[in-house]
Amino acid sequence: MSLTVAPDTGTTAPDAPPPAPGPSTATEVVRPRRVVPLVRAVAGGLAVAVTVLLLASVIAFALGALSDSNPAAAVLGETATPEDIARMNHEFGLDRPLVEQYVSWVGSAVQGDLGRSWFTTIPVADSIKQALPVDLSIAALALVLAILIGGGSGIGAALSNGGFFDRVVTLVCSVLATLPPFVIGMALIVIFSVKLQLLPSGGYVPIDQDPAQWLRFSILPSLALSLDVAASIARQLRTSMVTALGENYAIGAEMRGYGRSRVLFGHVLRNAAAPTLAVIGLAIPLIVGGAVITERLFGLPGVAQLALQSAERGDVPVVLGTLLVTAVVVVVASSLVNVLQKALDPTARREGALR
């Protein structure tokens, strides 16, 4: 028997698979596709942030313009003459048209100049710089506590789906969701400050002076702000994880011999984190809004107290500055959460890989 070798025609057999791309080629193709959704999310977030801040500035300035306070008369006192009041209004720029006042205020605010207090002549930006670190530190600690408490409770409830721990978490979350922060704060003061005398009931120490004392003074107000948010995080994470644990990819991974912890933290938790981040993004304005009552309850010298005291005496520039800075903090934090949520969203990752 003889074997005949077909001549080499220079063509590839139709059944031969095409050569696989090298590692560098695959990386160059996949990574840009995965980056596209993030770039779109950042661009969309910036557009929304600019629009929201513009609307917030218009609303804040309109509220200040519609107030019936007479700052010149309040500063000069009851003995001021009409000529003195007119001169002071000119110095404050209140004799100009409202549109011109707004444009001038926004233009200065973009450059970091929020004007001066009508009563103390202290720059508004300096007053906010002293008060803002208090709010940022309390809000950051409250958010960390909410994520730790809510995340741990949600994961435990999902693993004990229908069990005792799941029912306890559901009950506690239902109770906490009905309690406002000031009620929780008063309960914490009664328990930890009055009864047990473990923590102070008010005051503040900057974190750069004494971190340990800062934690002692900050833990109660942060807990008061975080428990409601922790309940929302726990419920959302528990629901998302129970759903994800029943998906085919989670069941198939366990059938292939992957460990429970690897399936949970490597696949299920990442897919369940995106909806939970949406809850965290919605909770940021609630934490900032709850700081008004919490700061007064615990005697914290934050931005909320600065705005409240300024509003009581009619110091419009300080009120406008605090409202604008608060809006910037909320919008920036919410935008960062939205970008992170887009990065963890499995749907966005699949769409980016298919393009």
Strand content: under 5%
Q: What is the CATH homology-level superfamily of the domain at 132-301?
A: MetI-like
In this structure, how is the largest beta sheet organized? none
Low-confidence stretches: 1-31, 351-355
CATH class category of the domain at 132-301: Mainly Alpha
Number of strands: 0
Mean of pLDDT: 77
Continuous helix count: 13
Calculate Rg over CA atoms: 29 Å
Q: Judging from the principal axes of the Cα atoms, what is the shape? A: elongated
Just name the CATH architecture of the domain at 132-301: Orthogonal Bundle
What separation lies between the terminal Cα atoms?
Answer: 54 Å
Task: Give the CATH topology of the domain at 132-301.
Answer: MetI-like fold
Helices and strands: which structural class?
Answer: mainly alpha
Order of helices and strands: HHHHHHHHHHHHH
Helix content percent band? over 70%
Region (Disordered): 1-27
Membrane topology: Multi-pass membrane protein
Biased composition (Low complexity): 1-14
Transmembrane segments: 41-66, 136-159, 171-194, 214-234, 272-293, 318-340
Report on this model:
The chain is elongated and about 85 Å long. The chain is an all-alpha fold and 355 residues long. The model is unreliable at 1-31 and 351-355 (pLDDT under 50). The protein has a domain at 132-301: Orthogonal Bundle (MetI-like fold). Helices cover 76% and strands 0% of the residues. Residues 1-14 have a biased composition (Low complexity).
